Amino acid sequence: MSIVNCVSYAGGHRLHEVELEDVSEVLKEPEGFVWIGLYEPSEEELRQVQEEFGLHDLAIEDAHRAHQRPKIEEYGDSLFIVLRTAQSAEGEVVFGETHLFVGPRYVVSVRHGASLSYADVRSRCEASPEYLCQGPGFVLYAIMDFVVDHYFPIIDGLEEELEKLEEEIFTGHGGKEIAQRIYQLKSQMLFLKRAVSPLIEVCNRLVRFDRKLIEPETRLYFRDVYDHVVRINESVDNMRELLTAALETNLALVSVRQNEVMKRLGAVAALVAVPTLIAGIYGMNFEVMPELHWAFGYPTAMLTMVGACVYLYYRFRKAGWL
User: Fold this and answer.
1) 239 near 158, Cβ under 8 Å?
2) Which whole number is the average pLDDT over 12-24?
3) Taking the alpha carbons of 101, 103, 106, 107 in that order, is the dihedral positive or negative?
4) Res 262 pLDDT > 70
């Protein structure tokens, strides 16, 4: 089975572990709720969970496919919420999904792909019975807060990578490799944007949720999650703009360096062209030419070549071409 944990709670305290097939019996008790965590369950396991909790077919179908954008949907007196989780692995950001079924008496979390265990979330909730007594709504907040907080180290790592790229660009190491790294970073930013941006609407709806499923004192905590999501979203937008500017700057600096090279090549070509021209003229096989039989013709031609090259070199150096 893919069940990580299945525990019943009442009055903010952990009671005991529950077998999946006994959940419906536990829910008949007047108080408390069940919190079950699953990791990449099969369709048969999800159908069993659906029978025990009475979950909607469409929500179960989405949880099984695990290719959903972050969203929140209402099915009767329950909520279905999709979150995108993110982790940094070997310098790249990998994404997973968490699907949450939240009802008056239960919380079901379904994890897919790259996702940290929620054992720490469960431990922190169990260590704060004064908050856990608020029920499934507080568990939903704790999981969302855990997922969102893990975006911050990823943002910090991407900002450090961006600073390194900017330093390399302005120290003269820009080129094809830098452009490739900028493109890869922009791709990661795009996936991060798709994961974070919809969470703003999700948090907005949870803050304004008027059902008894989420207690009024719990809604205040969702404001904190909302603030974090807005900060992350703004950071992603800022870095995307900086990456666009960095790519344009890199291309501009590459063009400037190419122009510098072309100017030097043009100056060298001019220095070579003058003596070549003079030597080519006097290398023609004509008998009647000025100063052809003059005793000082050769020294004069050499001095003319050297003088012209010195003058051109001086002018090019003054113009910054050499």
Assistant:
1) yes
2) 84
3) positive
4) yes
Q: Is residue 28 part of a domain?
A: yes
pTM of the predicted structure, to 2 decimals:
0.78
Domain boundary among 67, 99, 128: 128
In a domain, 227, yes or no: no
What is the CATH number for 5? 3.30.460.20
| Residues composing the chain | 322
Tokens of 167: 């330093």
In a domain, 280, yes or no: yes
How many Cα atoms occupy the beta-carbon half-sphere of 6 within 13 Å? 18
How far are the Cα atoms of 30, 207, 213, 220, 298 from residue 107, in angstroms, in the given order? 17, 18, 11, 20, 100
Mean pLDDT of 175-200: 85
Pair of tokens at residue 51: 């029978």
Domain containing 40 equals 1-128
Quote the number of domains for the chain: 2
**Residue 16 resides in a domain:** yes
pLDDT digits (tens, 9 = 90+) for 33-60: 999 999 888 888 888 888 888 888 888 8
Domain harbouring 272, CATH code: 1.20.58.340
**Residue 196 is encoded by which pair of tokens?**
């974070």
Largest CA distance in the chain: 124
Name residue 196's amino acid: V
Among 113, 128, 143, give the residue marking a domain's end.
128
> Where would I find the H helices in the chain?
23-26, 43-53, 57-65, 119-126, 129-132, 136-149, 151-168, 176-207, 216-282, 297-319
Q: Which 8-state DSSP code applies to residue 170? A: I
CB atoms within 10 A of CB 268: 14
